[in-house]
Write a structure and sequence with these properties.
The protein is mainly β and about 130 residues long. It contains one helix and ten strands, in the order βββββββββαβ. It has a single domain (about 15-125), classed as Virus Head Decoration Protein, Chain: A, CATH 2.40.300.10. The protein starts with 15 loop residues before the first strand and ends with a strand. InterPro entries: Head_decoration_D (IPR004195).
Length: about 130
């Protein structure tokens, strides 16, 4: 009898190589879901901060509302119901991350990834 195939997703913080002592690298922030469907966000997702209300959304590299600048990385997976918001832990500064394990929104192309990694480096989040 063949063994069953098991698929395991990323663990919380699996993308981290190192971070500052204590919780200096982390913050708890609000992620809003203004859409009509629930959001399923993976840990390692690159985030941007909206200028209007300082909430976080997936980085998209094309907006003009703050979503075009990568600012942080979602620490662990989260489910946000439609029209709701949720407090989430992010990596906001002073960390090294495995760039190949970061998660990007589907709309972000290779140019956007390069720009996003540069944005993160400005916050001292360094992709290796």
């Amino acid at each position: 009898m063949p063994s069953p195939v098991l698929n395991e997703g990323f663990h919380a913080g699996a993308f981290l190589i190192s971070e500052a002592n204590g919780h200096l690298s982390r913050e708890v922030v609000t992620i809003n879901n203004a859409g009509g469907t629930e959001l399923v966000l993976q840990g390692g997702l690159v985030l941007a901060r909206l200028t209007a209300d300082s909430s976080y959304v997936p980085y998209d590299n094309v907006g003009s509302d703050g979503s075009e600048t990568a600012r942080a990385i979602l620490f662990n997976p989260v489910l946000i119901p439609a029209g709701a918001s949720r407090k989430c832990t992010i990596i906001a500064r002073l960390a090294e991350v495995n760039a190949s394990e970061l998660v990007w929104a589907e709309t972000v192309d290779s140019t956007g990834i390069t720009a996003g990694l540069a944005d993160l480096a400005a916050s001292f989040i360094i992709g290796r």
